[in-house]
Amino acid sequence: MPTKDTSTLxxxxxxxxxxxxxxxxxxxxxxxxxxxxxxxxDPDPELTSLDPSPEGEPLSxxxxxxxxxxFDDQPMSEGQHEVEGENRSYTPRHVWKWVSDETxxxxxxxxxxxxxxxxxxxxxxxxxxxxxxxxxxxxxxxHFHQHTADGWExxxxxxxxxxxxxxxxxxxxxxxxxxxEEPITPRVDYDFMPTPPESGxxxxxxxxxxxxxxxxxxxxxxxxxxIELFDDEWxxxxxxxxxxxxxxxxxxxxxxxxxxxxxxxxxxxDDAENLIYFGMGVRGQFTPDDIPASQDDDFTHxxxxxxxxWExxxxxQDPDQHGFWLVHHATRDHEMPWxxxxxxxxxxFMPTPPE
Length: 355
Fold this sequence. Notes:
Layout: H1 11-18, H2 20-27, H3 61-70, E1 83-84, E2 89-90, E3 94-98, E4 103-109, E5 120-130, E6 143-146, E7 163-171, E8 187-188, H4 220-229, E9 249-253, E10 258-264, E11 275-285, E12 301-304, E13 322-330, E14 334-336, E15 339-341, E16 344-345
């Protein structure tokens, strides 16, 4: 698929993507000769979403098999493909998919052989770079992994200036790993296998080729395959305004309370050319106590499960309302009404702070 520049988005299309809350933000970004977006606010809205949000189901064997097949890129060297499955070899627990020239997304399962997995532990987002402090995008990228090494363990961390990927891991279930003192619940895992770079180390370079040479945007076939796999809906039908789906999003439950989402660059995802966010939602109510792991800087946006429209679902008016708390991790640099977004957790994504 040809590369599409998503560094800027047409304001009209941004409003479609974001809804009323986004319209307010766009109004604040208008040029002097442009008219602001008028928005009428009901001073006494009728509350919706007072019943609990729909529950999801764990991934089935077919779901896992489909995801493993779709995440079919190999950004690590052959020596790190230590697990032999029936269909191909794997880096332990991981499958990968390139989504741009510099970024990839991944799934981290509960079994070294993804074909034998029964659950998903993490979603992963990777950024090409070097093992230096300058190249580390932000704190959520706690782990650096070399693209070429003699084995999987040998790829963790490295020497100053080594080429590889800075990785964010977002836990999607209650899990316990050796680098945790106790089990953790769904969250951005800032403690995932920390590989701190040398303090003050300099250098950043992405102009190198991955072992598979697979860098690039998703193809139309890749997009369609992912859309087919992310086949769940959790909102009421009034919010499914874009060809029977919620605008710009597709969803996949991984448990009763947790879902994943892909956020595209078009309201009708069938027309999308680029993935701009990979994220997670957790069932809860519009109250600070339900923000996952108290990470209010990361889970900035709450969305009601029942509303008169997609726009009306942004945020809530009462702590008794139910929906999902969402964390949006950008998968490429792009521009939104609130400013330039770089690869990483978007901590400015349509904030809906509860009282």
